[in-house]
Design brief:
globular; Rossmann fold; PRTase_dom; ComF/GntX_DNA_util-trans; DZR_2; alpha/beta; 34% helix
């Protein structure tokens, strides 16, 4: 049956939608052009925010590497990883998931994220998505971060708490704001669900989101978790925005 369906509906590239050959069921498929435009973060990267760093071949997986921004900006979380750079095909896939009504892409993208986040996993860790405000959730019909965090938690055998964090107020978009403006925009907007306080007491938490730019959202989310009594917080994002070369 699956073979017949693949003949009728051949696998499509997640980046451009063109048919691709040789993709097993459940595998992530990219055409050659989109593959070349996808920057996977597999070499040297900042151990705090996941941004790729200049690589001489010796720094992959080294948590001691820290980017200039993380040396300058206080990060309340401990460690971070990202699967790919928010550019080219990576950017198109994130936007399709987030704004293009493509939740079907989430399991494939989550598989990339689960691999990238593997070094962060520890026994007893809780996985939680960055939440959307109810108004935005009603408009979009799903939280793209939760679609990524669920499969990640299952793949790593961790507890998934999609309602761990809440947004107490609707915030305007973060685009075109500097770091100070982004931080101020989110002030007091994120909180821990009171019903989940006991579930995170002293436990490590892995925060999941689709994209990290300045890190303002993760900062407020991590601060809320730590203030509520969680253990150390780590962050994992599908895509990491980088400064222009």
């Amino acid at each position: 049956m699956k073979a017949a369906l693949r003949l009728l509906y051949p696998p499509q590239c997640l980046g451009c939608g063109q048919p691709v050959a040789g993709s097993d069921a459940g595998a992530v498929a990219l055409c050659p052009d989109c593959w070349r435009e996808t920057r996977f973060i597999t070499g040297a990267a900042c151990g705090r925010c996941g941004v790729p760093l200049p690589d001489d071949g010796s720094g992959a997986g080294d948590d001691s590497l820290v980017c200039d921004d993380c040396l300058r900006i206080e990060r309340p979380w401990r460690r971070g990883r990202a699967a790919l750079v928010y550019a080219g095909t990576g950017r198109r896939m994130v936007l399709a998931l987030k704004h293009g009504d493509r939740p079907d892409m989430a399991p494939h993208l989550a598989a990339w994220l689960a691999r990238a986040a593997a070094p962060l996993v520890r026994p007893g860790m809780v996985v939680a998505p960055v939440p959307l405000h109810l108004l935005r959730l009603m408009k979009r019909r799903y939280n793209q971060a939760a679609l990524l965090s669920g499969p990640l938690a299952r793949a790593r055998g961790l507890t998934h708490l999609p309602d761990l964090l809440t947004r107490s107020r609707h915030t305007p978009g973060q685009d075109h704001r500097d770091l100070a403006g982004r931080m101020a925009n989110l002030e007091g907007a994120l909180a821990v669900n009171p019903r989940r306080l006991a579930a995170i007491e002293g436990r490590a938490v892995l925060l999941v989101d689709d994209v990290m730019a300045s890190g303002a959202t993760m900062t407020h989310a991590a601060q809320a978790l730590l203030a509520a009594g969680s253990g150390p917080v780590s962050v994992a994002v599908l895509a990491r925005a980088v400064k222009d070369d």
